Amino acid sequence: MNNIPKIKLGIVAVSRDCFPESLSVNRRKALVKAYEDKYGKGDIYECPVCIVESEIHMMQALEDVKNAGCNALCVYLGNFGPEISETMLAQNFDGPVMFCAAAEETGDKLVGDRGDAYCGMLNASYNLKLRNVKAYIPEYPVGDAEDCADMIKEFLPIARAIYGLKNLKIISFGPRPFNFMACNAPIKQLYNMGVEIEENSELDLFEAFHKHADDPRIAEVAADMASELGAGNKKPEILNKLAQYELTLLDWVEAHRGSKKFVALAGKCWPAFQTQFGFVPCYVNSRLTGKGIPVSCEVDIYGTLSEFIGTCVSEDVVTLLDINNTVPKDMYNESIKGKFDYSLTDTFMGFHCGNTCSVKLNKPEMKNQMIMARSLPEEVTNGTLEGDIIPGEITFFRLQSTADNHLFAYVAEGEVLPVATRSFGGIGIFAIKEMGRFYRHVLIENGFPHHGAVAFGHYGKAIFEVFKYFDAENIGYNQPKCQPYKTENPF
């Protein structure tokens, strides 16, 4: 994973000048010790320069964390805190910021050593809104040293995603394919988030591909592909072309990242791609995603944006799948009912032609793309990666601009069941509690497209906070039966 941020978080303690400064000093030290005892050193930096009580202190602390290489910040209210200086610190820091506050330690110290940070957090949040400053505030942001250490740990994946998006360029090739307008959405919301977008023609990519025809690195990359595929290398004759294409994309990334630190790609794979390039790009897409450079199919710009969020949060490979087909009743009765605690409508199949990384597939095999081969010569549809997706916990999610330029999102946790799909492509049987209601009253009701990003693990809490940070107006999730959706018929 060489395309996601490494977060170094600075902890700056603040103090209101009419409270004992020692409260903030000692509580900051206790917080750092609690974090390092539980999670080890390396992620955080304790700002020793000063306790921030004034604007001058704020400037000194800001300079210190900047010089220390911090790209994320925790403003820690060891007592009530200076509401102006502490929010100015967040305003002037170039990176994601969280606020948390110290709880009182003991009933024996509620006179001279009472900190009132519970009260100070209210003023901090008010001043943040006055200044239009975004900051992450945990669900319950007041706690002892161990509690606040846990809050900081939970903030780190959120900070990675926030920092990553603000330093991301999405590079796309070609317009959305005909009949896939669902993947088309206004790009204004990308700019609102700080994401840059570079849209290119397929001809630009085709030209660059031909310029790599005699690239001396092709043999090495093709050998690496063969090694990765092993017994699943069913189309060895296509590996050199796929290697040429992979090098084309990687070189394009380096030549076009510009001022941005991170890159994601959105590519077109049909209808003319196969006949002109002579293969399908699925396997190469899967390999780049495995390196931390998400590549979405069908020029799904918000799909690759979502994948990048999942990559930052999970620090692991993600994928992009169609919310594709139902599980047949006979298959459910035979392989799921009574064995797993899911109803038929809790289950569905997530599928895509072959863009899921080999490390997330059981017995992956290089094949031709069956759907495309129905209308094209088989030899130009080679290059897809097939296999059942490995079982285990997943998070299904997407961030999407609506047609009228509103930012909507959804996130739901579930699992891939250890049940053979008996189908083709990169595919798995997914189970999400109350999926049937979620499908109707979140996905359909809000006009989400068929593509969803998948992170391999339960990361709903962090992803939800990322969506909140970027002001998603509507964040859907799979609500329990006792909590009806707004549009759900109660009868």
Explained architecture:
There is one protein chain. Helix content is 37%, strand content 21%. The protein is an alpha/beta fold and 491 residues long. The chain has two domains: 9-166, Rossmann fold (3-Layer(aba) Sandwich); 168-476, L-fucose Isomerase, Chain A, domain 3 (Alpha-Beta Barrel). The strands form three sheets. It has a six-stranded antiparallel beta barrel, surrounded by four helices. A hairpin with a 5-residue loop joins strand 14 and strand 15 (407-416). The chain is globular and about 80 Å long. The model has no long low-confidence stretch (mean pLDDT 94).
Rg, rounded, reads: 25 Å
Number of domains: 2
Q: Structural class of the helix and strand makeup?
A: alpha/beta
**Count of β-strands:** 18
Counted by DSSP, the helix tally is 16
Q: What percentage of residues falls in helices of 4 or more residues?
A: 25-40%
Oligomer: single chain
Strand order of the largest sheet: 10-11-16-15-14-17
Strand content: 15-25%
CATH architecture of the largest domain: Alpha-Beta Barrel
Brief synopsis:
The protein has helices at residues 21-39, 55-67, 83-92, 117-130, 145-166, 188-193, 202-211, 218-229, 239-256, 273-277, 282-290, 301-314, 329-335, 370-373, 435-444, 460-469; strands at 9-14, 44-46, 72-77, 97-102, 142-143, 168-173, 196-200, 262-266, 295-296, 318-325, 347-352, 361-368, 382-389, 392-401, 407-416, 426-431, 451-455, 474-476. With 491 residues, it is α/β, with parallel strands linked by helices.
